[in-house]
From TrEMBL:
<keyword id="KW-1133">Transmembrane helix</keyword>
<feature type="transmembrane region" description="Helical">
    <location>
        <begin position="63"/>
        <end position="82"/>
    </location>
</feature>
<dbReference type="InterPro" id="IPR005496">
    <property type="entry name" value="Integral_membrane_TerC"/>
</dbReference>
<dbReference type="Pfam" id="PF03741">
    <property type="entry name" value="TerC"/>
</dbReference>
<keyword id="KW-0472">Membrane</keyword>
<keyword id="KW-0812">Transmembrane</keyword>
<feature type="transmembrane region" description="Helical">
    <location>
        <begin position="102"/>
        <end position="122"/>
    </location>
</feature>
<dbReference type="GO" id="GO:0016020">
    <property type="term" value="C:membrane"/>
</dbReference>
<comment type="similarity">
    <text>Belongs to the TerC family.</text>
</comment>
<protein>
    <submittedName>
        <fullName>Inner membrane protein alx</fullName>
    </submittedName>
</protein>
Length: 152
């Protein structure tokens, strides 16, 4: 078991080292790079299991996460065009595109997670809102089960 923990820990460390150049693309401060990697190492494993459990319960959460990943991809492409250094694209000059700032990114991420969570909770409530009495005991009946019992 010790070998497994060492393998997982070293893999975590290697992936953290792999992300250092990406963080230096965002900021030049070594303190921010170091602390970001330390916090990522501490919280990534727990966040994975948290999201894994929530995806089973919140049906639309995977769509919210997919939207966030697509948004980040578009943001990276726009940022690369905004700071163009490629000689074959626009003569090496920056392409005049909208650069998405940090506040806008934060708002989009929080809003998409909120909408996905609220939509999932609304669907769960819709599916389990009908409470009927069977043999004197309350029983939660979904819309599908209620419609099937009304057809009989």
């Amino acid at each position: 078991m010790l070998i497994v923990f060492l393998a997982i820990g070293s893999t975590d460390l290697l992936f953290a080292l792999d992300s250092i150049p990406a963080i230096f693309g965002i900021t030049e401060s070594p303190f921010i790079v170091f602390t970001a990697n330390i916090f990522a190492l501490m919280g990534l494993r727990q966040l994975y299991f948290l999201l894994g459990g929530l995806i089973d319960k919140l049906e639309y959460l995977k769509y919210g996460i997919a939207f966030i990943l697509a948004f980040i991809g578009v943001k990276l492409v726009l940022h690369a065009l905004h700071e163009n250094d490629l000689p074959f694209l626009n003569g090496g000059e920056p392409v005049p595109v909208w650069d998405i700032d940090t506040i806008t990114s934060l708002v989009v991420i929080v809003l998409s997670m909120t909408v996905a969570t609220l939509a999932s909770l609304a669907k769960m409530r819709r599916e389990h809102r009908h409470i009927e009495l069977h043999d004197g005991h309350p029983e939660v009946v979904s819309d599908d089960a209620r419609a099937a019992s009304e057809e009989k």
